[in-house]
Amino acid sequence: MGEAWEVCMRALEQAGTPAGHAATQTNLLLEAELRGRASHGLLRLPRIIERIHNGVADPKTRGKAVWRSPAFLDLDGERGLGPVIALAALDQIRERARETGIAIAAVSNNNHIGMLALYAEQVAREGQILLALSTSEALVHPWGGRRALIGTNPIAIGVPTEDEPFVLDMATSQVAMGKIHDYANHGRALEPGWALDGAGNPTTDAAAAKSGALAPFGEAKGYALGLAFELLVASLTASALGTAVKGTLDSSAACNKGDVFIVVEAGSGAVAARISAYLDEIRACPALLPGRSVAVPGDRARAERRQRLEAGIELADDVWHRILDLAQCAA
Q: What family is this (predicted)?
């Protein structure tokens, strides 16, 4: 962990990123790795550096905020680093929600914000509820279709409890495109039903799927949710839709997707206690499969984090070598 942190920081600072912003970006990437989400981890660092060099990511800005109403914040990200802008928005609406009970931020012109669960967990740990939505390039085919026309459009929900917060983080695709890239980097075959190739045919070849389309999760229901989230985010942020969305998977296009954060003041401590008791009841449910206990969303990611803190992060050789090259250029 220590070496990875130093390498990432050195590469980002060499690209003109202030130390505080570099630490924010590095932390999001490493936390994704620790939770087993390599698709949102260090494999994204080279692209972030390239985007800075190409002028489509500004590593110094915290965006420009305007309150549309007492509880509605518009934030122009000014092409900033995704996590930096996201946390700037959250800082403002979390404070406002303490006064108004609820506050929303509509974020535009921002780069990829990374793993949504990390924001949900942070807000919930501090006693507030978070609902986060984001859009992406058109990577998912509509149910029954053969062409990518809808974003993966993830949602995260964080709810405080007496113990570890409840954290849901899921895309509306069967898998994230970053996971397809991770499988391709490791030479692993995809699960059947995850993706189509460039010709619109089902495939288990991760390299072929990179130019194809992801399946919506839950068939027609996942398709409908993904489309609804895309329309909701675009309505609030005036962001692009469908195949017009660019900038989270390349190094040269300005990012024009949208992000929405809603913070709500949670109930009393008694409510948190009841939630914790209910979640424990769910965990104690008799297991359907031997040796596999019932988990609540967020449990396995935290367990993965504990294991990887002890065992270390394992990266694909080509990803680590690219990051080392960036750091050596910075030395």
A: Belongs to the LDH2/MDH2 oxidoreductase family.
| pLDDT tens profile 66-118 | 999 999 999 999 999 999 999 999 999 999 999 999 999 999 999 999 999 99
What single-letter amino acid sits at 149? L
Phi/psi for 202 (5° steps) reads: -60, 140
Tell me the pLDDT tens digit for each residue of 193-236: 999 999 999 999 999 999 999 999 999 999 999 999 999 999 99
Question: In this structure, are residues 271 and 116 in contact, taking their beta carbons and an 8 Å threshold?
Answer: no
Which is nearest to 193 in space by CA: 179, 210, 173, 207?
Answer: 173
For the chain, the average pLDDT equals 93
Bridge partners of residue 131, in order along the sequence? 157, 262
Sign of CA dihedral 323, 313, 248, 112: negative
Three-class DSSP category at 107 = strand
Strand residues in the chain grouped as ranges (E) = 64-69, 72-76, 102-108, 128-134, 155-159, 166-170, 195-196, 202-203, 213-214, 259-265
- Alpha-carbon distance 166 to 279, whole Å? 9
Tokens describing residue 237: 């942020």
CB count in 10 Å sphere of residue 51: 27
